[in-house]
Design goal:
Blueprint lengths: L4 E5 L10 H15 L3 E7 L7 E4 L2 E6 L9 H19 L6 E5 L4 H11 L3 E4 L4 H5 L5 H16 L2 E4 L2 H11 L6 E3 L12 H10 L7 E6 L8 H14 L3 E6 L5 H10 L6 E5 L3 H10 E6 L8 H8 L4 E4 L2 H6 L7 E3 L4 H13 L1 H18 L2 H21 L11
Parallel strand pairs: 1-2, 1-5, 2-4, 5-6, 6-7, 7-8, 9-10, 9-12, 10-11, 12-13, 13-14
Antiparallel strand pairs: 3-4
Helix pairs in contact: 1-15, 2-3, 3-5, 7-10, 8-13
Length: 405
């Protein structure tokens, strides 16, 4: 395989972590480099990192958007893309083979750099505005939808993380089926930790170590379904008094979730951690008895894979990519999305049947290492790159030659 030079664009990259996209780009980039290629990542600065970092064939370029006040988030995104374009142009020449853009937040930069360098553009669509909002309800959502459409139109090929997302992209963007490839997310396995390491994190967040911990990990937004779990807790603790709940993540629904837990009289049964470090996240996965992901919309569900890689049983909504990862009764349990009673019953079943919980966790652990390692995901992605480059080399769309003075 000939060494490729790949430009990867993403609005988040560690240490800036907003959602699963950050870790996806991080591990995909590192794995591609391990396969003998060069990756330049263009991303947003977190104000504390160096503007340019070099780790062998992995180069990270971080930018700050213009300090012009933005009237709204969409305007800010366009300013970020403008500075991203300028910085990428400053540090690289035309010697790149593929531009790979992740989601609409870097669409403008990806499209402009595609035409500037005359190189093929790959787009990974991690989720859609239509899917996140269950439709388009205002001018801002329609604008994002149109930007997503333009990205899929300009892309040579599109990568999605599940067959569910492939159907969604084809349906809402009228994308040809032969343009879309399904490559699942990978997972970096959760590290096994000692009892003292785990205990230290539990004490920090005032989580009792003698309870069976029910873990939720995700952004506190409507589509992730944390509110469904909150509503199920009174039913769960009525039959399983030793259950304790840990909600990991941050988002606009946090105050509402805390208020609702007080109304239900279960506030003393829950800890809301907010944003935590990877070390603390690994500790909670190790400490969990069961992990619950009651999403209403989920293109893939990398958090479920993380829990499975720690050998924990998972309970997920029968929706989107989660439905493709979990085989009900074999490596996890599935419940109808939004069904509080079904979720409560599933949690109670595993609390009362530790043998079943152990079996599900064991099967899930095996599946992760068989299907979802980052090396496997990188190999599949590189095959798409190779196919695109071969098509590009056989075509007429080549770099323009500018006259020298």
């Amino acid at each position: 395989m000939i060494k490729m030079n790949i430009l990867m664009l993403s609005w988040e990259y560690p240490p800036r972590i907003v959602g699963g996209l950050s870790r996806h780009v991080y591990w995909l980039s590192k794995s591609i480099v391990r396969h003998g290629h060069q990756v330049i990542v263009g991303t947003l600065s977190n104000n504390n990192s160096k503007n340019i970092e070099t780790h062998g064939d992995l180069i990270i370029v971080r930018v700050n958007p213009y300090r012009i006040p933005s009237p709204d988030f969409i305007s800010w995104v366009h300013q970020f893309n403008q500075t991203l374009i300028e910085n990428i142009i400053d540090i690289i020449d035309s010697d790149i083979d593929i531009i790979h853009a992740h989601d609409w937040l870097v669409a403008r930069a990806g499209i402009i750099l595609k035409h500037l360098y005359r190189r093929p553009l790959i787009a990974t669509i991690h989720s859609t505005e239509y899917g996140r909002r269950n439709g388009l309800h205002n001018v801002f959502e329609r604008h994002i939808h149109e930007v997503e459409w333009l990205l899929t139109y300009e892309a040579w090929k599109i990568i999605v993380c599940s067959h569910y997302m492939r159907e969604e992209v084809q349906r809402i963007f009228a994308t040809p089926s032969d343009k879309v490839y399904v490559i699942p997310n990978g997972v970096n396995p959760i590290r096994r930790m000692s009892y003292n390491e785990i205990l230290g994190v539990l004490k920090k967040y005032h989580v009792p170590s003698d309870r069976k911990i029910i873990l939720f990990v995700g952004r506190l937004v409507y589509e992730k379904g944390a509110h469904i779990l909150i509503e199920a807790i009174p039913y769960i603790v009525r039959l399983a008094n030793n259950a304790f709940f840990v909600i990991v993540g941050t988002g606009p629904m946090r105050k509402e979730l805390e208020r609702r837990s007080i109304e239900l009289g279960i506030r003393d049964r829950i800890v809301f951690t907010g944003f935590i470090t990877d070390y603390e996240l690994h500790a909670f996965y190790n400490a969990a008895y069961v992990a619950v992901f009651p999403s209403l919309y989920e293109p893939f569900g990398i958090v479920a894979l993380e829990a499975m890689s720690a050998g924990k049983p998972v309970i997920v909504s029968n929706v989107g990519g989660l439905s493709e990862i979990v085989e009900h009764g074999r490596n996890g349990l599935k419940v109808p999305p939004g069904d509080v009673t079904a979720l409560a019953n599933a949690v109670i079943e595993l609390l009362l049947r530790p043998d079943k919980a152990e079996e599900l966790g064991r099967n899930g652990y095996s599946d992760v290492y068989r299907k979802y390692t980052w090396d496997k995901i990188a190999e599949s992605t590189l095959k798409v790159y190779e196919k695109v480059i071969n098509e590009y080399n056989m075509g007429l769309w080549k770099p323009k030659v500018f006259p020298t003075r």
